[in-house]
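This section describes the prediction task in plain terms. A model, or a person checking by hand, is given the sequence of a single protein chain and must write out its three-dimensional structure as a string of tokens. No templates, partner chains or ligands are provided. The sample shown here is typical of the held-out split.
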Amino acid sequence: MNRRRRRILRVAGLSLLGGVAGCLGGGDSSNGTGEPTDGAGTTDPGGTTADRSTADPGGATETAATTGGNTTPPPASLGTTRTVQGNPVRITETTVRDSVFYLEHPDEFGVKDPGDGRYVFARVGAPDGGPARGEFELAAGDERFYGGLDRSRPWGGDVRPVYGGTDGTSGWVSFWVAAPLEADSVRVEVGDDAWRLPDEDVKALRRPAPTFELQEFAVPDAVEPGQRFDVAATFRNTGDAPGTLRAVMPVHGAGSPCCNGPKRVVEVPAGGRETWRESIGDPDTSLSWGEEVAIRLKYPGGRRERTVSVNGERTTDDG
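The expected answer:
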């Protein structure tokens, strides 16, 4: 008899969530009935989105199977309502991600790298309340993956709200999953009930994880007052499978609101390169004489910071 192997969620609290770009051919995958949005309430600006499976808006109910006197419901499809602990509960959407955006500081986003794994998120609908977050698990063959979202500090991102279990609303539960995952079927389980992940999610989980390497971060050392300038970051996917790159570039100074900065979400093939270019500065109001502009680049597995000095002579308008 096979023994059940358990893996511990390898996330420092996972007070984080991130951009929902996906593709059936590689990278992230998303399925279900909802449409995640980013922290500003808009859909993720980059990448492609996988075809979403359509679930019965009314919540279909599947018949339980009886074996040896025990009634065990078969794994349900997304959108199916089950009675869990006396209340209606359903999983309405799932998404698989190579990395996630999260609120690293109250005013600054970061990128969480899952290392040799991926993140799986499942949206739980429990209008009358439901199980605690810790009772949900991701099952892949004999392996079980557990996880939850740390609500002890403010967080941001586009897969929200976090599932609370007792607040009478829907929300997301999360899992760290090893990559590649050697399983033909994957389920979200709570007690005796389960919802199966769609085939495209399982396909995404069976691929090796991408590995992104920063090859160049081109930033000028100094600029003239009032000068707008360009920065460029070139990444290479050194892994054996395509993947979704997430990066964020917080900027301090140059008229930029502190400190979220632009985000980048893009699909990169195995062995492929991607160059991200941004134009920094407002020539009408920023980059005054003697100012410094700090630029931070955050990406899966690393971060860099550069400072640009504003040089040149003071100029006056004699009218």
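For orientation: The chain has two domains: 5-51+84-205, 212-310.
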